[in-house]
Predict the structure.
Amino acid sequence: MIGFLAALLVLRLLFAASEIQDTNKMYTSGSDALYNCSSVEEICKVPIPSSYNNCSRAGVWKNELQSVMRITCIQGQIRGFYCSAVGKAKSYYPLSGRYLVARGNSVIMGWTVAWQNPSGNNQSSTSWSAISYTGDVIESQWLLTSYSTELWRTVMSNRDRFMKVRC
Ligand SMILES: *[C@@H]1O[C@H](CO)[C@@H](O)[C@H](O)[C@H]1NC(C)=O
Ligand SMILES: *[C@@H]1O[C@H](CO)[C@@H](O)[C@H](O)[C@H]1NC(C)=O
Ligand SMILES: *[C@@H]1O[C@H](CO)[C@@H](O)[C@H](O)[C@H]1NC(C)=O
């Protein structure tokens, strides 16, 4: 009897572990499973299932400095990656954030990139706070915090306008 209960417990633990894995897979398959900053075409390659587009803003976006990001949104969560410079292998960084759908189908959203990847640690991170009134523009303001021993030097701020890329 005890052996049977122990076996049940082990099974239950195994299931719990596979549930966690499934959740991870769920989030990665829609966004950062395939990342490649070598070209916009490459970034556009992976189709985004409609279930990863609850904010109607999932897809590929480009700002005025030609940085490109790919995002998905599901259950309040934004996932994706940011290509700080298209064409450079080292430019891939994961991003994550939160969103909500506001009045008139506007989307209020915020996401963060920590500028560290296998190529290096830039000692900095950027957070964007944004609103998107329509499906083809995201208007954001960002704060970039960089390491310095002098506190007053650590933060820069500016705006970014992201335009939807037609993939
Ligand atoms: C990215 O795409 C380019 C061009 O198709 C390819 O040469 C390269 O191997 C890809 N890199 C990764 C990490 O998949
Ligand atoms: C987003 O999810 C909410 C809650 O599950 C649902 O009511 C709404 O229809 C979804 N919107 C889209 C665009 O999928
Ligand atoms: C971080 O990136 C900026 C812009 O490319 C560069 O000027 C700076 O030297 C980098 N800092 C570190 C610590 O890698």
The radius of gyration is 19 Å. Residues 54, 56 surround 2-acetamido-2-deoxy-beta-D-glucopyranose (ligand 2) (CB under 6 Å). Helices lie at 2-30, 40-44.
